[in-house]
Design brief:
Its cofactor is Zn(2+). Keywords: Hydrolase, Metal-binding, Zinc. It comes from Haloquadratum walsbyi (strain DSM 16790 / HBSQ001). By secondary structure, this protein is α/β, with parallel strands linked by helices. It has a single domain, classed as Metallo-beta-lactamase, Chain A (4-Layer Sandwich). The protein is built from 5 helices and 13 strands. The longest helix has 14 residues. The chain is globular, with a radius of gyration of 15 Å.
Length: 191
């Protein structure tokens, strides 16, 4: 089961996805709200904390999640002090009851990852692609529009026709025509 435990948060934060199953995983930790109590409404245990990237709105709550659940953090850039374990490009990682492929997708930030499970048609896109063809900012440190376009194109070329949902770092999940939203984001980023 996938739940956005930050869905009602009004503070500056990313979405925070709790995926329960064989491996209870948190995708991003968010910022500026009591994420621990939100998680505890659904589970007593977190096995993995995965990061799409290390912008503050995605990671500020990590200390409280670590303290409450004694969990380590997986991300792309182990030189960052909050990343305990590296995730390589195209590595298979357990989330819930499925295996996801990690895709290194820089452009918004150099350490950006997406997680994709082709067999169930789900992609966690972080701040790469948003609903209605929107895409991640490239005006922050480490951002690069050309690289972002290449990353969006990579996702477009990787996902299959059975893609049913894209869970983005901000805003609603994309559950209607997710492949079309990827194409729209690629077009918009090129403008």
């Amino acid at each position: 089961m996938i739940q956005n435990v930050a869905s009602d948060v009004q503070a500056f934060s990313s979405n925070v996805f709790l995926v329960t199953g064989e491996i209870n995983a948190l995708i991003d930790a968010g910022a500026n709200f009591d994420v621990v109590s939100q998680i505890q409404e659904h589970t007593e245990q977190i096995d993995r904390l995965y990061l799409t990237h290390t912008h503050v709105d995605h990671v500020k709550n990590i200390p409280s999640v670590r303290d409450a659940f004694d969990v380590e953090t997986w991300g792309y850039d182990t030189t960052h002090d909050i990343v305990d374990h590296a995730i390589q490009d195209e590595e298979s990682i357990p989330i819930g009851d499925e295996r996801y492929i990690s895709l290194h997708t820089p452009g918004h930030k150099p350490d950006h990852l997406c997680f994709y499970a082709a067999n169930i048609g789900i992609c966690f896109a972080g701040d790469l692609i948003f609903a209605n063809g929107s895409f991640g900012r490239t005006d922050l440190e480490g951002g690069n529009r050309k690289t972002l376009i290449q990353s969006i194109d990579r996702i477009a070329g990787t996902v299959t026709d059975n893609l049913t949902a894209i869970y983005s770092g901000h805003g609603p999940a994309i559950t209607t025509d997710p492949k079309e939203n990827i194409d729209m984001a690629a077009q918009a980023a090129r403008m």
